[in-house]
Amino acid sequence: MIPPKAYIAAFSDSSELKPELISSLIPNAGIRRRMNRLTRSAIAVGLQALSNSGLSQVDAIITASGLGLLEESEKFLRTLIENNEQYLNPTPFIYSTFNTVGAQLAMLLKNHGYNMTYTHRNHSFESALIDALSLLQTPQTNSVLLGAFDILTPSSEQILRRLGSFRHDRIPFEGASFFVLTNKPSSKTWGEIYLPQILSLPKEPSTPKELLTLNPSISPDSSLPPLITWNGQVLSSSEMDIQVKKKYPVSPTLSAYALWNTLYSAHGSYPSQVCLIYTQYPGMPSTLIPIRFLQS
């Protein structure tokens, strides 16, 4: 059976954003002022990905976040305590919900289609991707705007550090990444993406070559050995036997950034080649997202 797949029409990441670009993508200054830092950049990234695709509208918007908009949640709870549960400003609460980014994108695009947000810790993006791939198998859906975002606040970073998430010099990480997926290829198509896998392994692989023994299902098969993206870093075929470092970025939605970085840095160099995007999160099962580059 051929596994579900979609075509990657465009992508964007918050690391590419500049303040003037955010202003041009969200021209209404009043709306921008009411958004927190992550909401503003995530929405701008989503709009930029859509612009890059050449589409003016999509049939569905699906977002993912492991911890949501913590900055607004903390602000609301802090005010709740300081004001003795009285005279509360509702704005931080409204902007603290996990579906804020998806809802704001729908309002700005005047999109009345399917809109869903997934919050499954470090599997949030994978759950959103499964939903997007499933939707694109139906005749009603031709395109999906898919994205993921997470933020680090001083308090959340301190808690995660105390829990040991940043041992072995692991790096705190935050950001937003968005992709436009379609059910048919076009001149703008970057590659194919397949169903992600959540790996329950007795032992995490220590080398990329060891990871390849997992034999992920991907179709069509490539005659070339697959590339590996290990926690966001694209590795060449000569690095398959190298012992990977325990130092890597930590974020519940790191796999979305890893997908963006793979497309951004490796496309054009490996036409028709399969790439396995492997992502770890401390104390949780790792994930694998197979993609295949199309001819450049």
Distinctive features:
single chain, 296 residues, Peroxisomal Thiolase, Chain A, domain 1, 11-stranded mixed beta sheet, two-stranded parallel sheet, 13 strands
Could you characterize the architecture of this molecule?
- Strands 1, 2, 3, 4, 6, 7, 8, 9, 10, 12 and 13 form an 11-stranded mixed β-sheet that branches. Strands 5-11 form a two-stranded parallel sheet.
- The protein starts with a strand and ends with a strand.
- With 296 residues, it is an alpha/beta fold.
- The chain has 2 domains: 5-182, Peroxisomal Thiolase, Chain A, domain 1, CATH 3.40.47.10; 194-293, no CATH class.
- It has helices at 19-25, 29-34, 37-53, 70-82, 90-94, 100-109, 124-135, 154-162, 208-212, 254-266; strands at residues 5-13, 60-64, 114-118, 143-150, 171-172, 175-182, 191-194, 197-199, 227-230, 233-235, 249-250, 274-281, 284-293.
- The protein is built from 10 helices and 13 strands.
- It is globular, with a radius of gyration of 19 Å.
- Residues 216-220 have low confidence and may be disordered.
List the helices and strands and how they pair.
Blueprint: E1 5-13, H1 19-25, H2 29-34, H3 37-53, E2 60-64, H4 70-82, H5 90-94, H6 100-109, E3 114-118, H7 124-135, E4 143-150, H8 154-162, E5 171-172, E6 175-182, E7 191-194, E8 197-199, H9 208-212, E9 227-230, E10 233-235, E11 249-250, H10 254-266, E12 274-281, E13 284-293
Parallel strand pairs: 2-3, 2-4, 5-11, 9-12
Antiparallel strand pairs: 1-6, 1-7, 4-6, 7-13, 8-13, 9-10, 12-13
Helix pairs in contact: 3-6
